[in-house]
Amino acid sequence: MLKKDKNYENHSFTSSFGIIIIILMVCFVIVGRVKKTESAIFIKPEATIKAEAKEEIIEDKRIGDLKRFFNRYDSPLAEHSATFIEVADRYGFDWTLLPAIASQESGFGKKTPSCASFNPFGWTSTTSPCGYYRFEGFDQAIKHVAKRISELSYYARFKETGDIKELAEKYCGGSPDEWVKKVSFFQEKIKNEALF
Prior knowledge:
With 196 residues, this protein is mainly α. The protein has eight helices and no strands.
């Protein structure tokens, strides 16, 4: 009988010890998760957060400025102002370049070719029956033209110098001086109106 009691005590002790180990392991896991959560919350220093917030405000300002500018001309491109800013930043363009090209080529998107109504840049195509690239919407046109200007080898000189005349010679061919004059005028106009 005494032997049986010792086994019972040993078994009881072993069970209790096992439960205590399990409880301790659960506590370590919970504490570890809390510490991970705390460290995840405080990853970014305050200066970084402020810099990002400031950058967002600047981007929002350009979007708002461009939208107001387009609205003055009753342009259908106003609702696509964020896309203009996005591609300018992505490809390293002046944010006023593509809007100014749209002014010259289509009166800010109001006078697009009837066969290519979402082509405010006069972007030509050798495969389209009407000679102009047919886009499904203005956002697609903005992204496509920005990407092509950025990547096509014959615009490499423009990418190196940033000189609009270099772009004009390939982009419009015929009378680049007049094109440059008009595009530059609207770039300045957009920037000047953004100051107020």
